[in-house]
Amino acid sequence: SNEIPSLYKLYEDYFHIGAAVNPYTIKTSKDLINTHFSSITAENEMKFGSLEPEEGKFTFEKADEIMNFAKEHNKEVRGHTLVWHNQTSDWLFTNKDGSLTDRETLLSRMKNHIDTVVGRYKGQIYCWDVVNEAVTDSGENILRDSKWLEIAGEDFIDKAFEYAHLADPDALLFYNDYNESNPVKREKIYSLAKGLVERGVPIHGIGMQAHWSNFHPNLDDIRQAIERYASLGLQIHVTEMDVSVFNFDDKRTDLKAPTAEMMEKQTERYDQFFRIFREYKDVISCVTFWGAADDYTWLDGFPVRGRKNWPFVFDENHQPKESFYKITSI
Ligand SMILES: Oc1ccccc1CN[C@@H]1C=C[C@@H](O)[C@H](O)[C@H]1O
Fold it and tell me: What is the CA(292)–ligand 1 centre distance, in A?
């Protein structure tokens, strides 16, 4: 039949294939997600600010909607994300009088959040992005400045992993970051992870977000990052893959559709990326796209607000693109 193959079924001997979803796309992309993806991640609904907007007041409705979808369609779920400097509630870092809170208070708030969230989905969410984007993109420091670091100190990361492990000893715990293949940032992520491993902190994997483009990163840097992280004995998940048709500094807003040249280049890039993923199938256990099809992507708002992008292997009408045929001719 001219049926197109299921992406995740085709890759079942390599790694899971996942998609970020939200309450909108589990409706609009239900069939596509069901057919082609075996794992889902809540794009925003399991972030700290989404789940605990006020201290002790948990709002699980949207996360539960996504969990129900996963149960109904037998999809694995990656939890994203417990400790991050973005999309996090301000009350966490302040006292009632608005002054900055102290280390003990912040850590107990972190623990309560993790106990409540990881405990709720214990046995249903098999892995968590425990800490997201704690490493700097530039400068000598390893850790980026954040309220977490300022108030609790460097071991807030150790604590997050230890609390998550206590809340669900069976969950696989990941450190997740972007620009993860950049050699300078790679070495910072590596030394952070190496320290965690050496201190016996329960970490099981590194999440490579893989927000890549037609232009970056280069293939050798990707290989070297995979090998570096794997050398710690950690699993690797590609957690947020999309391939922007624009170079990061290209702020053009004139296109209503991708050019043929953009699509040819993207096809070649996906072909090369998935060749590398297949080569490292023994250390990569999941490849998740940060969406499903080109009709919905966070890149329509980043780095240029309101500028359409076409980053996936399914087009705006949920039809396979040339890149889909390339990565499925294995
Ligand atoms: O590519 C980047 C460049 C600068 C900052 C953050 C990122 C990526 N940051 C990701 C993107 C979208 C969010 O929904 C995810 O939770 C976050 O992990």
Answer: 16
